[in-house]
Amino acid sequence: MNWKQLPLGPLQTNCYVLYDNDKNAVIIDPAGDADKLLTFLQENELHPVAILLTHAHFDHIGALDTAREAYNIPVYLHEQESDWLEDPQKNGSGRMMPEAAFTTKPADHLLQSEGRLQFGGFEFQWLHTPGHSPGSVSYWHKETNTVFSGDVLFSGGVGRTDLYGGDMDTLLASIHEQLLDLPENTVVACGHGPFTDIETEMNSNPFINGFGA
């Protein structure tokens, strides 16, 4: 089992493609630059089976409809952002780039109660980690010991909370109550920038160390 980080779109948001030896794949946050994403999938002869969204901000969904239609695969999103894909104000494109505001088709499946997601040989534990947005989700893949955290936790930082539905106290609580409970050697595959690990962030991330002080 392997995963590839693909910085895509105007904000170089990290899209991740997790794939197995049989060339089946799961796409996490198809951020943009649809041609680059499809080229990677085609050149590696991968067969996506699902798209997982960590949340519905515009910079994480730019290639969503192109990818889902190219492979006829379902999209998963937290129920608290069920209408964000169709609302430029909520997904942020209307605020951040009003001249190019956009929408996508709604998700096929809405996540409700925390638990497992399984697609063939892929199994994820999904964690509700709100704060950056109300429906932010982190996907822990035990086999590769990786948590795909979206914009919840970064290397040396945390997600912004000044966008629609954001809240810093909620975000920090999510990190402490959900992500820091994972094994300390868990790799954190962030929505922007380099990947990190839980132990490093516990020891050196100033936002985490200052929480509750």
From TrEMBL:
Its cofactor is Zn(2+). Keywords: Hydrolase, Metal-binding, Zinc. InterPro entries: MBL_Glyoxalase_II (IPR051453), Metallo-B-lactamas (IPR001279), RibonucZ/Hydroxyglut_hydro (IPR036866). CDD domains: metallo-hydrolase-like_MBL-fold. Residues 12-192 form the Metallo-beta-lactamase domain. SUPFAM superfamilies: Metallo-hydrolase/oxidoreductase. GO terms for molecular function: hydrolase activity; metal ion binding. The keyword Metal-binding applies. This is Putative metallo-hydrolase YqgX. The gene is yqgX.
